[in-house]
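User: Teach me something about this protein's shape.
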Amino acid sequence: MLSGPLALKENTRSPLALALEQKLALLAQSMRPDLKQEDRAFSIGINGSDAKCFVKEGEKIYFQMQQHPSGGIETFTFVENPTENWMTPHVLDGRSLLLKVEGGARDAMEVVLQAQNSNALQENNIEGISALKEARWWEPDLFFRQYGGPQFQALGKKQKIEIVDGNLKYVLFVSPGDFLSFSSGKWHPIEDLSKSDPRSPLAQVRMINQRQLEIEAWNSEGFSLGHTRIEPKKGALSRISPEKLLIGPKLRSANQVTCHLDKKRYILRPGDWLLRTKNGWHKLKALGEIDAYINQETRGELLVIDSIDPSGIRAHYFDEMRTQIQELVLPISIDKTTKTFKKKSNKRSRLSNI
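Assistant: First, the predicted structure itself:
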């Protein structure tokens, strides 16, 4: 560091240069992963002031300054219009910036600024950032693990983040290293950085362990907006008694049964999905209803009927966030009607083997 053409010259280390190092602060560097090298910029602030300037490497920063009789700096301000005083920034390393101060009657000076510890801009008014900071982290989706095909089983291996932004509520499936791009009012996982929108905020899942999920976000200029650390939440599913859930099951055929759920009579078949919301039970039939549940646009406790035969009903029960699962087995009492169905079922089975 500080070698070669950017090496500090001992004869330029004036008291004024040292005073400038105390007066100015390197607030942040644009380190967004999809940013081109020539587009990287810096945020430089004035200690004791909210003023800051944003500049790219090699660009001139114009300023006005008044020195104190003791040799320090009494006032310092950034200005937009050209003045006789300017400085140009040059990168030294990932946490250091060299300012070459020129112009005016004084000799040229070289000032080194060290990055602050956070190296992040604390801006919460950027669209999508507040919602990301308030995200909820849930355990993997057990519904996708149990019933998803190859595409959805892959999602079941990821962690689930719930985003709540006003009236908008949606979930994201993420793994360490995944990138998120903000567009159309929502965060979206992207496969690679070539699909990111440089005009919109970007985020990356930096780390996931048993206790924390960490996300870093950047604004469109490339400056880090800080790290968000989310603690895991657990779904709640009380153990369900099959006899109290599916009341009075009776076979209608070899693979159909009638029963009551919350005093409402249903005819159930293998493959049925029944959703329980605050409005009660509802069998999902239409493709739009099924898609809404898969995407968690519609939520509630779900009962999936796996099989029905004279020996009983087998099903799985999921909590609202699909992070808890219970396997249900409910025997069906044998009566004359059941025996008739069983005989017919066995006859079909024998015929199918011929």
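Now, about its shape. Confidence is low (pLDDT under 50) at residues 341-354. The longest helix spans residues 336-352. If you'd like, I can walk through any region in more detail.
User: That's plenty for now, thanks!
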